[in-house]
Write a structure and sequence with these properties.
CATH superfamily of the largest domain: Type I PLP-dependent aspartate aminotransferase-like (Major domain)
Number of strands: 12
Number of domains: 2
Shape: globular
Structural class: alpha/beta
Largest sheet: 7 strands, mixed
Radius of gyration: 21 Å
Number of helices: 13
Low-confidence stretches: none
CATH architecture of the largest domain: 3-Layer(aba) Sandwich
Distance between the termini: 46 Å
Mean pLDDT: 94
Strand content: 5-15%
CATH topology of the largest domain: Aspartate Aminotransferase, domain 2
Strand order of the largest sheet: 2-8-7-6-5-3-4
Length: 391
């Protein structure tokens, strides 16, 4: 029995990604995993803080009744209150438990948000480059992703965003620190974006500003990450603990809605219902309890900064052009030729796995994830140098 036409088309559009993973598996069988330099996946290679394991053990040792039972769709009240207290300080806006929903990671939060706010045909504007799955998340709920190019160094182009706003525009989706570029949008750009959106809100077209922030705790060189909620009333911030605590497989995150967002009561009810009917039902019980006790704790981002410097120094010496990332754990260099897929294929010939920039809405670049062992970075550098000399 054939699969749906829509999913078949989606598989066709992403076939180059499947091919990359299949090629990586083939190379590892031939040469051994240690001889294949895999920069393709943003899978944190740091272990969670020791406190995470201690926290889980303490939770289990309490032998509390109903530890694994159903709960409210929005999550445990005490966990949401703990998160709200921390986010209030971080964002400069007073939040309560009623402004928070615990979710199955940031991906779950985004799907819940789009299910709650989108009508068929409405648009979500997103700066490009952007995380490869944003288009699918928006499409899941009848909307259309409208990518808008950033500047040459991946900063927001406020004029371009303003020109792209149409009557069908429902939200702006930003991601800072950015995947794949590692760029951080500074306060002055966030303030300018908020001014633009306030103009539309004051003229009867409130537009949600959605900020996806799973890399907020991974910032380099003392870079400040602006607080979205304190800049714009109609904003929603979502995040994951996958990178903060290095627990991506646990699928735990949350979303926070500005208390002054338009129709906030209806919005919170819609988000709660979406959390249930999309099949998430609620975020995992044990992980909720754990992160509720660990607010403010995170891995040492300085380790990733050292990896960034190691990779940047090596690629700069080889002749690559790139913007040095201010956060996350990705580097997004220019490919030596416009065909980024061809360039990534050339890297594969040296057992180097990278991701073409085309998948992130930014052809002519490629993404490298440096959350990998230092030795992998060092041993891959001769291959990077060999490939760029070929072109």
């Amino acid at each position: 029995m054939p699969i749906s036409n829509k999913l078949k088309a989606s598989l066709t559009r992403t076939s180059w990604i499947r091919k990359m993973f299949e090629e990586g598996a083939r190379l590892k069988k031939i040469h051994g995993p240690e001889n294949v330099f895999d920069f393709s996946i943003g899978n944190p290679n740091l272990e969670p803080p020791n406190s995470f394991h201690h926290t889980l053990k303490n939770i289990l040792d309490t032998n509390q009744a109903g530890l694994h039972a159903y709960m409210p769709n929005v999550g445990y009240a005490e966990v949401r209150q703990s998160v709200a207290a921390y986010i209030s300080k971080e964002q400069g806006v007073h939040l309560t438990a009623d402004d928070l929903i615990m979710t199955c990671g940031a991906a779950g939060a985004l799907n819940v948000i789009f299910k709650a706010i989108l009508n068929p045909g409405e648009q979500v504007i997103c700066p490009s480059p952007y995380f490869v799955e944003y288009g699918f998340y928006v499409d899941n709920h009848g909307g259309t992703l409208k990518p808008i190019p950033t500047t040459s160094d991946f900063y927001l182009d406020i004029d371009a965003i303003e020109k792209a706003i149409e009557p069908e525009t429902k939200a702006i989706l930003i991601n800072s620190p950015n995947n794949p570029s590692g760029q951080v949008y500074p306060q002055e750009l966030i303030a300018s974006l908020a001014q633009c959106l306030n103009y539309h809100a004051n003229n009867g077209q409130p537009i949600y500003l959605i900020s996806d922030e799973p890399y907020r705790k991974i910032a380099f060189d003392n870079t400040e990450i602006p607080a979205i909620l304190s800049n714009y009333d109609h904003s929603i911030v979502c995040t994951s603990y996958s990178k903060d605590l290095s627990i991506p497989g646990e699928r735990i995150g949350h979303l926070a809605v500005h208390p002054k967002a338009q129709d906030r009561s209806d919005l919170m009810q819609a988000l709660s219902m979406a959390n249930r009917i999309l099949g998430f039902v609620n975020a995992p019980a044990m992980m909720q309890r754990a992160v509720g006790l660990m607010q403010g704790e995170h891995i040492d981002s300085g380790i990733y900064q050292k990896k960034r410097d190691l990779l940047c120094d090596g690629l700069k010496h080889a002749g690559y052009e790139f913007t040095v990332p201010k956060g996350a754990f990705y580097l997004f260099p220019k490919s030596a030729v416009p065909d980024d897929v061809a360039f990534v294929n050339a890297l594969q010939a040296e057992n180097i796995l990278a991701v073409p920039g085309s998948g992130f809405g930014c052809p002519g670049h490629f993404r490298l994830s440096f959350c990998i062992p230092d030795d992998t970075i060092v041993r891959a550098l001769p291959g990077f140098e060999k490939v760029i000399k070929q072109f």
